[in-house]
Amino acid sequence: MAQFDIYKRQTEGVEFLLDLQDNMLENLSTRVVAPLASPEAVVTPMKTLNPRISVGGAEYILLTHLLAAIPATALGEPVGSASTQRDEIIGSIDFLFTGI
C-alpha cells in the first residue's frame, strides 16, 4: 500500500477510495482514505477542497471532507495512483484543516 494509491469501492455514489496516509505508517492496521466520486454525484465541489483526480482517463472529485480511517485489509489491490497530483491532494487536506 502506498500513499495516493486508488482502490475500487462502489458504494452510494463513491466509485474509488484514495489512500492519503503516508507510507511511513504502513504498519498500522488502518489507512486514512477519502472517497472519489463522479462529477455528476457532487452538487457543488469546491476547487481547493475537492480537486479533480484522474482515474483511467476519467475525472473524479476527491471528497476530502469525507476522509475516514478504514481497515487496511478492506482495500484490496490498488487500481491506480494519483501520486502525480500530490500537490493538489495535499493542498485539499491543508485547506480542510487550516482553511488556507
Number of domains: 1
| Oligomerization status of the protein chains | single chain
Strand percentage lies at 35-45%
Tell me, briefly, the overall form.
globular
The total strand number stands at 7
What is the end-to-end distance?
Answer: 29 Å
The helicity comes to 10-25%
Can you count the helices? 1
- What is the arithmetic mean of pLDDT? 94
Question: How does CATH name the architecture?
Answer: Roll
**Rg over C-alpha atoms, rounded to the nearest angstrom:** 12 Å
Structural class: mainly beta
H and E order: EEEEEEEH
CATH topology: SH3 type barrels
Biggest sheet, open or closed, and with what strands and sense?
7 strands, antiparallel
Which residues form runs of ≥5 with pLDDT under 50? none
At the first level of CATH, what is the class? Mainly Beta
What report would you give on this structure?
With 100 residues, this protein is mainly beta. The chain has a single domain, classed as SH3 type barrels. It is built from one helix and seven strands, in the order βββββββα. The chain has one helix at 86-98; strands at residues 5-11, 14-19, 30-37, 52-55, 58-62, 68-71, 80-81. The longest helix is centred in the last third of the chain and has 13 residues, at 86-98.
Could you name the key traits of this structure?
13% helix, 36% strand, SH3 type barrels, seven-stranded antiparallel sheet
Secondary structure layout:
Elements: E1 5-11, E2 14-19, E3 30-37, E4 52-55, E5 58-62, E6 68-71, E7 80-81, H1 86-98
Antiparallel strand pairs: 1-2, 1-7, 2-3, 3-5, 3-6, 4-5
